[in-house]
Amino acid sequence: MTAPYLLFGPMLAILGRLGAAFVLGAIIGVERQLRQRNAGLRTMVLVAVGAAAFVHLGARVGGGEGATRIIAYVVSGIGFLGAGVIMKEGAQVRGLNTAATLWSSAAVGAFCGCGLVGEAAGVALIIVAGNTLLRPLVNYINRQPLSATNTEAVYKVHVICEAEDVAAARDLLGDLLEAANYPVQSMDVLTESDDRIELAATLIPTTAEAAELDRICDTLAADPRLSAATWTISATL
């Protein structure tokens, strides 16, 4: 009885740890799959199982020091995998949450690889809670209007003028913003036609006073060379 146990005991241990990583990774992955994310059920399972296998191997070969070294490699290595699901579409960046979930799934696998299945289950439940229970709160916050007085965001001041007045409009816009201590990051032509041109001065991301920007736009609009002036605000990435 002793010999078979010695033979199969370590195998049963690794299978138990990999099985726990499989189940917990699947729990995380189901939520991702239901939302049709780039990294879904199979990816989360493979990340968790792979992390568990590497950490367990490090522990078997190098003991506690070996496991610690492998965990460090897992933490950094999963970052490259997560970078593959992050995409930039225009001004929007997508996939950050999925990349963070991949990274967290690797943590679940690392716990399992060390035999800390209870802790791994706790982490997995918190990950699922973060991806589900916090969603209504995130949606509520995102629906709130941006505050011009306390939001660090990108501000743009727009002016519309005749084609022959572009140089004068650019100088006037820059001078007024400089006088108000609002540094300009860039000044671009947004729309251009034969008789009308829209300029936009993008301010360096900071906080701004709505009333002060209104006064700047009023001054710009009063200039006979400009037909309109306004400002906009958008969130930083």
Please describe the structure with a list of short key phrases separated by commas or semicolons:
two-stranded antiparallel ribbon, 7 helices, alpha+beta, single chain, cell membrane, 6 strands, membrane, MgtC-like_C, Protein MgtC, Alpha-Beta Plaits, four-stranded antiparallel beta sheet, cell inner membrane
Look at the structure and give the mean pLDDT.
83
Bin the strand percentage: 15-25%
> How many structural domains are formed by the residues?
2
Q: Give the strand order, joined by hyphens, for the main sheet.
A: 4-5-3-6
Low-confidence stretches: none
How does the major sheet shape up? 4 strands, antiparallel
| Helix share, percent | 55-70%
Give the distance, in angstroms, between the N- and C-terminal Cα atoms: 63 Å
Total E-strand runs:
6
Helix/strand-derived category reads alpha+beta
C-alpha geometry: elongated
Radius of gyration, in angstroms, nearest whole number? 28 Å
Work out the helix count: 7
Please write the string of helix (H) and strand (E) elements.
HHEEHHHEHEEHE
Task: Please tell me about this protein's structure.
This protein has helices spanning 2-34, 41-83, 96-113, 117-132, 135-142, 166-179, 210-222; strands spanning 87-89, 92-94, 153-161, 184-192, 197-203, 226-235. The chain is of the alpha+beta class and 237 residues long. It folds into two domains: 2-142, no CATH class; 153-235, 2-Layer Sandwich (Alpha-Beta Plaits). The strands form two sheets. Strands 4-5-3-6 form a four-stranded antiparallel β-sheet, with helices on one face. Strands 1-2 form a two-stranded antiparallel ribbon. A hairpin with a 4-residue loop joins strand 4 (184-192) and strand 5. The longest helix has 43 residues, at 41-83. This is Protein MgtC. It comes from Sphingomonas endophytica. Virulence factor required for growth in low Mg(2+) medium and for intramacrophage survival. May be involved in regulating membrane potential by activating Na(+)/K(+)-ATPase. Its main location: membrane. It is found in: Cell inner membrane; Cell membrane.
